[in-house]
Structure prediction request, 873 residues.
Amino acid sequence: MLFDQLPQFLLSGLTSGSIYALVAVGFCIIHNATGMVNFAQGEFVMLGAMIMISLTQDLGLSLPAAFVLSIAGAMLVGLFLERIPLGLARSRHILILVLITVGFSIAVRGAASLFWGKTARALTSFSSEAPLLLGNAVISRQALWILFLTMAAVTLLHVFFHRTPVGQAIRAVADNRRGAVLVGIPVARMVMVSFALSAALGATAGILIAPITGMHYSAGVMLGLKGFAAAILGGYGHVWGAVAGGLLLGVLESLAAGFISSAYKDALAFLILLCVLWVRPSGLFGQRTLKRV
Amino acid sequence: MAEAASSLLVLRDVCLRFGGLQALMDISLHVPAGLWSALIGPNGAGKTSMLNVICGLYAPQAGDVLLEGRSLYGVPAYERAVLGLARTFQTVQLVQEMNVLDNLLLGLHTQGRVGVFGHLLRSSASRREERKMQEKGLELLARFSLETLWSRPVLELSLWQRKLLELSRAVAGDPKLLLLDEPMGGLTMAERESMALLLQDLRGQGMSMIMVEHDMDMVMAHTDHVLVLHHGRLLAQGPPREIQADPQVISAYLGE
Amino acid sequence: MSAGRTAAARPWRRLLPYAILATAAALTPFAVTDTYLLSLGSLIGLFALAVTGLNLLIGMAGQVSLGQAAFFGLGAYASGILTVHHGLPVGLAIAAALTLTGLVALVLAAPTLKLEGHNLVMATLGLNMIFTIVCIQWESMTGGSSGLFGIPAMSLAGVNLSSDRNFFYLVWGVLLAVLWLCSNLLRTRPGRALRSLHQGDLLPVSLGIPVVQYKIALFVAAALLAALAGCLYAHYLQFISPHSFDMFVSLQLVTMTAVGGLGNLWGGVFGAAFLLLLPEWLHAVPDVMPLLHGLILMIVLMFCPRGLLPALKNMARKIWRGHG
Prediction:
């Protein structure tokens, strides 16, 4: 019976959904700080995983050390993107800035294919490969790591935004940029922090998923898109909405693949997204804005 | 009802809410044709909201707006322009990328009869209509002493010139009722006087106007009829002299 | 009072770019003997056609669609399938494909155009993803990821329009005609209304411009231009595959528009040429090509945000003045 597999579908949906959630939150953080969509978000995912693979396999670093260094590497790339291509751009027009991130992502993919080649590489799991049995569902240890570390990351993020001065300043910038400038918040620096943070989240997602799916120079594109979709689903800009959107997208996708058609799973995911947008343009968890007639 | 029949514009029990905020409460009024009316009131009294209700940008939750006795209920904003409503904005709205003449010609949009396909193919009808519109546009610009600037991008205009251009665009289609949102805002004393003279001329030619304005001296010196809004209610209405003496109005203004 | 005079006095100034481009297009097949380069020229014309529609949508209405390649593909696949599987004559198939695309765009326009900013981008992107997946999965109709073969060539009165040279003329002829029509439109009443749209609804609506109808018309027109390019593409190459119409192509169309100059009709043609020729110039260094492609794109957008064509024009004017 197909329904016996429901827990299995749910579990694998939550696993991929966690990855989407991390990417989606990255989209939201940059959107809140700048109002733009960062199309290079998926490249952070790829970079995090590829750097991690190089450090552990080519240089033989231990997992925790490599983890920290990979994330730091992605954060540097995020800062570079904010400072140089976006910072030096002559136009403040959102569309131009967004297209600059598109150019940046093409360049990063190009550089990655030069550096790492075009073949996919795998990352060893964080712990043993032996799966665990949970009722009649099987779950890999890596999936547990994903669920656990995603929850940890989101919780830390929540604490960061609500309990630390820097996090509160970023929220103030998101809330009211002019107001933030007036009360003396260094907005430019908060935007930098946002890019670094968003890159770190993306890289974490990449490192977490790489042991399951492997990673190659252009794998960030699809993950970035799914993250974007999740962020929209959750009502763009809401961090918790993005988490919920990511999990929901993962679960829907896995159910669609299991019960309807695995060939059309991505199409179904996007179709659901379109329907949500058409019915509720502000996303599932976004606030409805007052609309003029 | 007899009054309603002779009125150009009638508002009947209009209520407008934004979420929990009551912007307009039970507004009922008549605006006779041919008058220059002023809409005054402290900040946040609902003046611009009322203009937006009249021209159809906001749909009131209750009540109705009638133009020449015809209900505008459910009539979208762009059709109200065809019916004879025109307006200017608190912050001047011009299309930055277009020159002065093209911006003015936007005011003649509803006058065009040649369809999209005629224009696409540059038919002789299209060329004739465009030539006529350009001539009419230049005439209008001349009326507002902007004719020498016709080919300039609007970015190069001063605030006074922008206000003039916006006003000329609004009157281009010979509207029945002109809604002016702070036409004197940001202008110098001399420019205010010139604007008042222009508006007086318009009224002399039979144009009906409702003007939101903060400059009380201008309002009292030039307008025929004053409507006072306070906290979304119509506090008083009448000739300027009466309004100036109305104790309710005085206390509303002094109470601020 | 010189408005009428000045506008009409130098009609040649308006005709000049058409004359230059038409002459260049007429001579190219004689100068370029390499069929690959000639077909690249045709491809530039096709993309310029799709970019022209997108340029109106983004430049006039400020609405960024990342699904333009899906309409491009819908035209190509509809026309391809109708001729290959149903044996329709090419002309009829193209007409049917355009009608179908127009209807699809019309149905999608109303709910999609209610969306703004990111949501519109996502929705159009989603449409493109769905289209690509359906093209890959619906193998019996589309031939799946290996593509649809055996699409018949176009011919008119015994002349094969799909030969390299004739197709080149056809595409550039169509493109010049479309550009002429669009610039006619933009100079007149409906064009002024379109140009006021990106200002927000407040102004156009108060001037009596039915904003929603105009935006829907623009969306459908942009889709039709893309579909027309798609139909021509399918009957020229006689083979189509899903990845020619995926989201990267949509992204490339938007980039062509921005690189050429938003809202600038000639700029769009220039942007299409620039982005399609760029990989050719970088061909000598195949490995670094994607990296350089990304970098050049980034640098152009960083330093010429109003587009390459206006920037080049400015430069030329300065040099001219310097010497004159």
Notes: Chain B has a mean pLDDT of 90.
